[in-house]
Design goal:
Oligomer: single chain
Number of domains: 1
Mean pLDDT: 86
Distance between the termini: 36 Å
Structural class: alpha+beta
Helix content: 10-25%
Low-confidence stretches: none
Shape: elongated
Length: 61
């Protein structure tokens, strides 16, 4: 059996984009057939992310 994996989720308040938080969590690292678990070293927020934040509900995202 595999050890649980620590996670961080960045949450952004939909009605006030300047309010964010990182939520710590843990997931079970046991994977089913054809599943993969990827580690992200870093990420970036771009203008495209902001566009989706503004129009996401209208577009059904």
């Amino acid at each position: 059996m595999s050890e649980p994996v620590s996670t961080q989720t960045m949450e952004v308040r939909k009605d006030k984009w300047s309010e964010t938080r990182l939520v710590e969590g843990r997931i079970d690292a046991v994977l089913a057939e054809n599943e993969v678990l990827l580690k992200i070293d870093r990420f970036a927020l771009t203008a495209n992310n902001i566009s989706y934040a503004g129009a996401g509900d209208m577009l059904g995202y």
